[in-house]
Amino acid sequence: MAGRPVDHERRAELLDAVVDYTVEHGFSDLSWRPVAAALGVSTTTLVHHFGAKEQMLEAILGRLRERIFAATSEVLGEQPDLATAARAVWTRTSDPRRGAEFRLFFAVYGRALQAPQQFAGFLERVVADWMRALVDLQGPGTDPATATRTATLVIATIRGLLLDLLATGDQYRVQDAAESFLATLEPPAPSRRPPTGR
C-alpha cells in the first residue's frame, strides 16, 4: 500500500518553520521530537514530509542558502558596480540582527564539508550563486578570468571577515579590515590633467 503523497505547499511551510527553529536553537542538537513539539506537529508528520533526519538537514541547508542569497541578491541587483555591491552585501551580512542566521550558516556549511557527497548540491551552489552576480557586475568588458578571480576574492574575503566577526565579536577591528578591503575594489579616480597655459 502506497503512502500518502507529500503536500509540497505544507512541506514548504514546515521547512521555513524548521529553519526558523534551527536559527534560534542551533544545529548540533537538532532532533525530531523537540522540533515537532516546537512546531506543534507530530514526529510522524515531520518524517512524512522530510524522510530521514539527514534529508531534513539537507533541506535546511538548501533553504538557508536560498534565504541568504535572496537577501543579498536584492542588494546586488540594485547596485551599479562591484565596489558598491560588495559594500552593500557586507553591510547586510554583518548586521548584528542577522548574526544568528549566519552562525547557523557556518555551522551547516561545516556539516556539509564533512559529508560532501551527501550535500553536494549545497556545496556546488553556495559559491556559484554569488559568483555569477559578482562577475556580471564587473561588466562585459572585463576579462572573464579576471572577473572570476575578483569575484572569488570578494566572496572569500567577505565570508572570512564575517566568520571572524561572529567568532570574536570584535566589531571595530573587523569593520576596519572590511573598509580596507572594500576600498581596493573602488575604481581609480580619473586623473586630472593640469591646465595648459596659453
From TrEMBL:
Keywords of this entry: DNA-binding
DNA-binding region: 31-50
Pfam family, one: TetR_N
Organism: Acrocarpospora pleiomorpha
GO molecular function, one term: transcription cis-regulatory region binding
Domain HTH tetR-type stretches: 8-68
Database matches in SUPFAM superfamilies: Homeodomain-like, Tetracyclin repressor-like, C-terminal domain
Coiled coil: none
Superkingdom as given in the UniProt entry: Bacteria
Protein name per the record: TetR family transcriptional regulator
InterPro entries, A to Z: Homeodomain-like_sf, HTH-type_TetR-like_transc_reg, HTH_TetR, Tet_transcr_reg_TetR-rel_C_sf
